[in-house]
Amino acid sequence: MAAEPATVTPELRLNPRASGFARRGQPWFYADDVLAGSVTPPRLVRVLDEEGRDLGLGMTGTGKLALRLCGPWPGLAVPDRDAFFRARLLTALDARAGQLGPTDGARLVHGEADLLPGLVIDRYGPVLVLQATNAVVENSLDAIVPFLAERLGAEAVVARNDVAVRKHEGLAEEVRLLHGKRVTEVAIVEHGVRHVVRPFDGHKTGFYLDQRPARALVQQLAKGRRVLDLFCYQGGFAMNALAGGAASALAVDQSEPALAQATAGATANGFAGLQTHAGNVFDFLRGQREGHANFDLIVLDPPAFAKSRREVEGAERGYRDLNRQALRLLAPNGFLLTCTCSHHMDGPRFEELVRQAAAGLPFRVVMRQRLGAGPDHPVLVTHPESEYLKVLLLQRLDA
Length: 399
Hints:
Rossmann fold, Transcription Regulator spoIIAA, 28% helix, alpha/beta
């Protein structure tokens, strides 16, 4: 009887330079970093240094990023897909155990920070929304989705794979239902405010879960203040301001459907005092300046101006201009909460742009607080790209 062929563990060896980076926690590598082994087809592999010492598991890919590390694993073999994803998902869920209530919104998986590169999963009550941005994850959805649906009792699991980064791995941009029934709207409650989320066509995966800490801060600061919410989307900041006792809240966005959703949200929550304005925020700010308007609390949360390194210079001009115009609209002792969500704009550079925006103004601008995303969006300290959201609370002082 012929002997059965031995099972070969898929392996990649990194060159000495890349091995050093891997030991220091860097998770991303390119084809030139691979000393031996093939990155195709996309699969889970055991990663070794140049001398054959174990560096844990990795996911290979066909795009510019040839290898993404995904942490240690016992032994020297490569686990099957079900065992790997079950273990990683259980760890991620355990870390968010306090945010799994029936009306909670939370990020359950945050890519590299949860040792699941290329996978994001957000929970909106009974609805799960995921994004898969590498081929290994995409090809493993039949292992991921049933486990999550059963574990969390999900009514629906939606793929929001309408992100351009998928094209780098030859994956189609699409939105589709992976499990359950089609749920077009679902409500979550955060800081006592009810938000309606549209998982199939809302921004990102339906809502900006990462701004949870900043929304709480706005609610704390808002009492008696006139609030301006710029790039407001569906008015999350404006509604938290009204929940905190704001005298008024003006929400500004180019999207009339988003503003209609903000108005409906304020009505559903029983909030009075919301006004909306549909238009270009740059033009709006110039008009307010000419009309000598001012506000006690301004939230400036623009989209990512720098979606690639090539766009950074133009983004810097945009951030500088917006922040200067917003600062000029602050009433004495007023606050500006200013944000950037581009990982190409690091914290020190963003703060430098804010300093430039404040230069020469006829009042002092002081830094009161630095914020980022909530704990359900963990930052991997060896992977600075995971700290994409930067939020600064500034205050105007005249004395």
